[in-house]
Amino acid sequence: MKICPLCEHGLISKIKVKSTNEIIYICNECEALWNNINICEDEVLNFDSFMKSRKLQLLWDEFNVVEIL
Ligand SMILES: [Zn+2]
C-alpha cells in the first residue's frame, strides 16, 4: 500500500479519467493528485486546477478506479 506523503494517512488510488483516458493518482483523503507514479510532495498537483483545465466536473463520476496502490 502507498500512503499519501501529504496527509500521511490517505491511500493512493490509480484512476483513469473517463473522458481523456489519462491515468492519474489521487489520495482518497486529501485529494492530492499526481499525474505519474512518482508520488512525492514535490510532484503534487492541485485537484481543482487539474479538473478545471480539462473542463471536467469535480465528480468521482468522471473517474474509474483502476486499483488502490
Ligand atoms: Zn492525502
Could you give a short description of this structure?
This protein is mainly β and 69 residues long. 10% of the residues lie in helices and 28% in strands.
Can you give a write-up of this model?
By secondary structure, the chain is mainly β. It has one domain (12-68). 10% of the residues lie in helices and 28% in strands. The chain contains 1 helix and 4 strands, in the order E-E-E-H-E. The protein has one helix at 47-53; strands at residues 12-17, 23-27, 33-34, 63-68. It has a 4-stranded antiparallel beta sheet, with no helix packed on it. Strand 2 and strand 3 (33-34) form a beta hairpin. It is globular. The mean pLDDT is 92. It binds zinc ion. Residues 4, 6-7, 10, 27, 29-30, 32 line the site of zinc ion (ZN).
Major sheet characteristics = 4 strands, antiparallel
SS-derived structural category: mainly beta
SSE order: EEEHE
What shape does the CA trace take?
globular
Subunit arrangement of the protein: single chain
Helix residue percentage: 10-25%
Give the N-to-C terminal Cα separation.
5 Å
List how many beta strands DSSP finds: 4
Low-confidence stretches: none
Strand content: 25-35%
Mean pLDDT: 92
Discrete helix count: 1
Q: What Rg is obtained from the alpha carbons, in whole angstroms?
A: 11 Å
Spatial order of the strands forming the largest sheet: 3-2-1-4
Q: What hetero molecules are in the model?
A: zinc ion
What number of domains? 1
Quick tags:
4 strands, mainly beta, 1 helix, binds zinc ion, 69 residues
